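Request from the bench team (R.T.):
"We need a structural guess for the complex before ordering more pyridoxal-5'-phosphate. Sequence and SMILES attached. Just send the tokens back."

Command: build protein-pyridoxal-5'-phosphate structure.
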Amino acid sequence: MNKNIIYVDHAATTYVKPEVFEEMRPYFTDLFGNPSSIYSLGRESKKAIENARSQIAYCLGVHPTEIYFTGSGTEADNWAIKGAAYANRKKGKHLITSSIEHHAVLHCFQFLEKEGFEVTYLPVNEEGLINPDDLAKAIRPDTTLISIMFANNEIGTIQPIKELAAIAKEKGVIFHTDAVQAMGNIDIKAKDLNIDLLSMSAHKFYGPKGVGALYIRKGVRIDNFVHGGAQERNKRAGTENVAGVVGMAAALKLAYENLEEYNRHLRKLSDRFINSVMERIPYVRLNGNREKRLPGNVNLSFRFVEGESLLLMLDMKGIQASSGSACTSGSLDPSHVLLAIGLSHEIAHGSLRISFGERNTEEEVDYIVDNLVEIVGKLRQMSPLYEDFIKKGGQ
Amino acid sequence: MNKNIIYVDHAATTYVKPEVFEEMRPYFTDLFGNPSSIYSLGRESKKAIENARSQIAYCLGVHPTEIYFTGSGTEADNWAIKGAAYANRKKGKHLITSSIEHHAVLHCFQFLEKEGFEVTYLPVNEEGLINPDDLAKAIRPDTTLISIMFANNEIGTIQPIKELAAIAKEKGVIFHTDAVQAMGNIDIKAKDLNIDLLSMSAHKFYGPKGVGALYIRKGVRIDNFVHGGAQERNKRAGTENVAGVVGMAAALKLAYENLEEYNRHLRKLSDRFINSVMERIPYVRLNGNREKRLPGNVNLSFRFVEGESLLLMLDMKGIQASSGSACTSGSLDPSHVLLAIGLSHEIAHGSLRISFGERNTEEEVDYIVDNLVEIVGKLRQMSPLYEDFIKKGGQ
Amino acid sequence: MYSEKVMDHFMNPRNVGEIEDADGVGQVGNAKCGDIMKMYLKIENNVIVDVKFRTFGCGAAIATSSIATEMIKGKTVEEALKLTNKSVVEALDGLPPAKLHCSILAEEAVVAAIEDYKRRHGHEIEDAQQCPGCCGKCGSSRDE
Amino acid sequence: MYSEKVMDHFMNPRNVGEIEDADGVGQVGNAKCGDIMKMYLKIENNVIVDVKFRTFGCGAAIATSSIATEMIKGKTVEEALKLTNKSVVEALDGLPPAKLHCSILAEEAVVAAIEDYKRRHGHEIEDAQQCPGCCGKCGSSRDE
Ligand SMILES: Cc1ncc(COP(=O)(O)O)c(C=O)c1O
Ligand SMILES: Cc1ncc(COP(=O)(O)O)c(C=O)c1O
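Reply to R.T.: structure attached below.
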């Protein structure tokens, strides 16, 4: 094991499963027709896309005509949020989201604020949970859209989406959820949950990068985002990424088939990891809710230690993890999620996110913990904050 | 040959060349890291993307930091047009484009018109060429953007981009070109041509579907289109389609290496095809300019014949071509391009686009012509328009 | 896209051509929309004894014309007038939604030819619905 | 991302620790920004005879601290004051653009420690530039 790579950053991205890749493969060099073409090669691509659409719709418990393919989870978020905001701007210009959304959502709202919309950012408690009462109170007559992520990418917290969507429905407000992290981990039935719009991204559930989807419940008013050709029933232009779409559907199908077992596996690894770290390393905090969290997610804050140096040292041991969110390169702002749950800047800087996947093993968990013990110790010895802390008697 | 497929719709999409696919392959299952991640697997993806960027920039004769990856050619067009229009709206709200742009461009302008912009649609002559004087005259003090496609997807006409861009530069107006059809066929050096923004799409030059790029000349004011993460130097959010980007660069590199030979090959096939059809089938018109056209493009109008039935009968013979543009399924509007060059609805309906590619042969050309002779004859015998024409003495 | 039945009638259309001394001729659609159907009827003792068509149009247009001629051949004029676009679609094992207008056109072509027959033979005719030109409703854009 | 030199100094930092009876101690940066450098100097006859550091920060912060200590050890105070962030970056074979601020921090840490030394020994000090807290300029967001 030692010099091999231990990949524990599945929340950042996953590999394409070999069996998923095999399903994609013919669509590059052989079945390459444009789905808009009427001859046989085109019709085969069209069929592949429509099969993929049906498969995804089936998983989500919705109708195939309610699934639209996009070029990423981010594009799905942009479309949902800007599309719904603009389509309903005559009705009102007030929007609601949370303070712990992914940037793909937050930056859309910030853009809309500049364009004259008003946005309420709901707070979360110290575990990252939104209080449904806060949502109910925030809704105004001119509120047109609520966007709350299904599960958080950094701390893994799963929101009470059913309750939140029910409130939105009662008030007649469109409810969008960024389910990019949740898909493939949670059995989401969008219709039952009264979700109007839902975003997903294939590369988070062992599908390819560069393909996502937006579920748009029939009847929801939403403007187009990418204008052009008549693809996706005139709603999302651009020649379809046939191989990508086929891969996304194949990956989601596998995920839904193995959901329970996968959850059990991940939960076992996370529990072992959390318990073991808590036992062996002092001054550590588990971020997020212990139960209502993505099964493979562990987010820890190590006091006196800075996240990037922690990651780099883990990397030197072959352990590939993340500090809160994948791109910390060049970042001096600690994660807005960790700040939103009340962490100080100092502690937020020392956070580590481990996200387990299907191939991880208990041996790997133990190897990671052993190395963490050593690395955290080393970095603390190097840390002026730890020096102060000890000199002040360790309170 | 007979029962094999003869693919002559390379303007709709191309297969991924096997050697391009081989370069992409490792990035699905093995080198799958998120380019934003700082550990080795992430850094390798980052490096792959940056190499791809440099390769594409080199082909275009621009700096790598001026290339931005997108999820399609359509997205690149949307970004360029909406981004430039909005970023400069304080300066003015007048935009200029042509009447024969692809829908990815036209529909953006139609959207902007609804949002309060004013758009001038330049006419073209009967060969699809824009008159530079028309452009010069259309520019006003409040004009902020000109978007003229490099080469047309239906009739293959290549615009005098150098002249047009020079006019834009002189007047200080941003010049965008949709080069989706031109890339891989023409040696475009964007800097030398004074192009400010240029869109491309990989699947038109033997790369994968679902990945495109926008060249943004340094200093050009343009708003973001897809908001979210800090990818692409904070300009285009979304986890990068690493395999796709690698494939696009590999395909473009190959294209540039073989440009001359490829052009010669295509020109030989098109010439043979055009000459042979003209000789053997009466009442045919070649659309577009005979010289200033994409080398592989042939666009013909067969009087008294409707395009879809022509395509279907060709398909039954294994010949996969297009009628003006790929998606005629369900379309009753004849191509806006053919109408813009002055064709009547009736004649526009009978158009056929053949676009040759690297694997086509002269034998295939002959096979297509033989079948065309037969099919056009059969359809004319079935056509009430032909009946009228003959009864009226064939004038 | 198309059923086997449609493809069969498209590739091997029945009753193509014209009837020189037809008793009724009807033409519907227009070239602008991309569909023209012309139907020739030979009627004896109120029975359609022969029928031919010529169609300029897509695969569905040709197939619906072809099957419509089969469906009315041997029928009385009254029976032929009962031909509905729905029965044409069913006989073809379905049509794509964007192509349903073709079946309406076929129905209209039959009606137009029978009206012509009635007119020539002094019958009174009721107002018939005809495609008034391109309403744009039946399809959308072309892209790749 | 980082050069081999940076990784070497990061993984095997030189001169980590503290000097109990230091002649000058300087601390710059703050936890909010995610970078704190603390530098201890032992100075004899105007020469830096020993130097130690503790740093809370990213890989670049640790590496720049480490190399800065190497670069000033054995130098006179005046020579040490000439240490520039540029020379620190060069000695490390470069730093990613977003990490250049770390080299500035290293330069500032040296200055701060020397100022402390001077202050303790009655020298006058000029105004020094110090990172006034998180200006947000040196990096951007985190995404995946
Ligand atoms: C919660 C969440 N939303 C949106 C995204 C954006 O997805 P993508 O980068 O695939 O566009 C991500 C991950 O990147 C995410 O974790
Ligand atoms: C000229 C032109 N522009 C834009 C596009 C859009 O490219 P894509 O469908 O790959 O997004 C196409 C082809 O589809 C095209 O031919």
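Two things stood out. The longest strand of chain C covers residues 35-44. Chain C touches chain B at residues 1-2, 7, 10-11, 13, 16, 18, 27, 31-38, 54-59, 61-62, 96-99, 101, 134, 136, 138-144 (CB under 8 Å).
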